[in-house]
Amino acid sequence: MTHRRATAIVALAVLAGLFGCAAGPVDVTGRVLGDDGEPRAGCPVIAQALSGGPIPEVAQVSGSDGRYSWSFPGGRYEITAYCDTDETGSVTVGASTPEGGSTDIVVGE
């Protein structure tokens, strides 16, 4: 393998990692919780791609138990919950998010 070809392969691998092409889907489940630990129902939950995408569904509303769930294409995403006017919180998820792990968003901190 020539030096030029090896350099091209490394560059493609780096780009694939940056744009989420190498990673599989990111499945996220969690709850929107207040800083008191209680679930927050009816909160808009918005996702924004940091890398990867596109996002098939960019917004949800937390359930009566505060739960939300999403499946994203490989990449990194910021998920933000907005409850009332002064309660917001966000988490960043990506390929390193544990499969089946819970990603709770605490609002009002």
What would you note in describing this structure?
This protein is mainly beta and 109 residues long. The protein has a single domain (3-107), classed as Carboxypeptidase-like, regulatory domain (Immunoglobulin-like), CATH 2.60.40.1120. It is 15% helix and 42% strand. A four-stranded antiparallel beta sheet has the order 3-2-5-6, with no helix packed on it. Strands 4-1-7 form a three-stranded mixed beta sheet, with no helix packed on it. Strand 2 (44-52) and strand 3 form a beta hairpin.
Structure summary:
With 109 residues, the chain is mostly beta strands. It has one domain (3-107): Sandwich (Immunoglobulin-like).
Which properties best describe this structure?
single chain; 109 residues; mainly beta; Immunoglobulin-like; four-stranded antiparallel beta sheet; three-stranded mixed beta sheet; 1 helix; 42% strand; elongated; disordered N terminus
Secondary structure elements and pairings:
Layout: H1 3-18, E1 26-34, E2 44-52, E3 59-61, E4 67-72, E5 75-83, E6 87-93, E7 105-107
Parallel strand pairs: 1-7
Antiparallel strand pairs: 1-4, 2-3, 2-5, 5-6
Q: CATH topology, what is it called?
A: Immunoglobulin-like
This entry's quaternary arrangement is: single chain
pLDDT averaged residue by residue: 77
Strand content: 35-45%
Low-confidence stretches: 1-22
Q: What is the end-to-end distance?
A: 54 Å
Instruction: Please count the beta strands (DSSP E, at least 2 residues each).
Output: 7
Structural class: mainly beta
Query: Going by CATH, what is the homologous superfamily?
Result: Carboxypeptidase-like, regulatory domain
Gross morphology:
elongated
Q: What is the rounded Rg?
A: 17 Å
User: If classified by CATH, what would the architecture be?
Assistant: Sandwich
The largest sheet has its strands arranged as: 3-2-5-6
Specify the biggest β-sheet: 4 strands, antiparallel
